[in-house]
Amino acid sequence: NSLSLLTQNNLNKSQSSLSSAIERLSSGLRINSAKDDAAGQAIANRFTANIKGLTQASRNANDGISFAQTTEGALNEINNNLQRVRELTVQATNGTNSDSDLSSIQAEITKRLEEIDRVSEQTQFNGVKVLAENNEMKIQVGANDGETITINLAKIDAKTLGLDGFNIDGAQKATGSDLISKFKATGTDNYDVGGDAYTVNVDSGAVKDTTGNDIFVSAADGSLTTKSDTNIAGTGIDATALAAAAKNKAQNDKFTFNGVEFTTTTAADGNGNGVYSAEIDGKSVTFTVTDADKKASLITSETVYKNSAGLYTTTKVDNKAATLSDLDLNAAKKTGSTLVVNGATYDVSADGKTITETASGNNKVMYLSKSEGGSPILVNEDAAKSLQSTTNPLETIDKALAKVDNLRSDLGAVQNRFDSAITNLGNTVNNLSSARSRIEDADYA
């Protein structure tokens, strides 16, 4: 029956078209299987792969931003600690600080550096330590191989910043004045005057000739004179003035002349002739005044003179008559010092800035350091290497800050790249989605 067959064929066609229409209406897709559009399905599937890959890449880029921000935040804290260390270092380099001040400053610096190490070791993103080692973090920002942005990471701690052992209160070259002021050193400063060697006792100031035991006094003409010199002409007691002060003094009367207390041993007459005594430089000295009514003369049991400190003394006891100022008047040239601390002998350079221990035999330079309790100690140059203060500390910190700044700049730049990548990925996904829609989506019009 041809009519029946035609009817059935048309019904089948209608049924097929209706089924296809219902399927498209229900799914919203023009291509629900490969038979709907074999070529179109393949093309749309490639679009889908790209869209899904780019969408995930956008999420990856956002993760990259979070990673970079975490790293930058840690670097910001390291920077804050470095700025404080620099501030403390500027304070420490000021000469007004005491040893206790420097110890306190160094203690805070040490804690700040320890905090830098802690931040470096413990800061992590999703289990990845961001500053604990030199590394590269590749972020996939595309749907295909090789489409990545690299985040460069660096190990940032006290050691890599050049601050390992950073010290503003470490061992420094000891000076002659350090030995005297901090260790109560004894000994002499050594001078040369016209080829003759002199020593000045650093404690008493007494001047001696190194070739003998004579004590030197400052003579009126500015020359140096030994106690054995019979022509000594120091600034002495004026006989006429002494007689005037002693007129009519009874025996055992006391009076003061030029700051010295005298006792009348033999009663003075109206002109001041008499015998007087005074305690000078720990020694009793007798003064005999005669011919006071004419040109008074004075005979003493010792040669008496006034020293540079304005005090009277004698030439037959140890004295401070000739001092460094007297040597200077005689064009003295300092050749060095020989100082003793706790039984150890040290040679000091002429400028007082370098000390070597004579007993060591190798002339190693001595440094001033501190014990654990904070007391000053002397160490040789070998022991001082690990204890010395950082050379050019501010320059050292500036280099550390520059290294941190460079890494922060890289992280800031890479965050901007991620922002740009995310925007571009969004545009690409939108355009690909539109193109795919035109191929596989149902057309309701």
Automatic annotation (TrEMBL):
Residues 394-445 form the Flagellin C-terminal domain. SUPFAM superfamilies: Phase 1 flagellin. One of its GO terms (cellular component) is extracellular region. The keyword Cell inner membrane does not apply. It is found in: Secreted; Bacterial flagellum. Keywords: Bacterial flagellum, Secreted. It comes from the Bacteria. Coiled coil: none annotated. InterPro entries: Flagellin, Flagellin_C, Flagellin_N. GO terms for molecular function: structural molecule activity. Pfam families: Flagellin_C (PF00700), Flagellin_N (PF00669), FliC-like_3rd (PF22370). Residues 1-135 form the Flagellin N-terminal domain. Belongs to the bacterial flagellin family. Flagellin is the subunit protein which polymerizes to form the filaments of bacterial flagella. This is Flagellin.
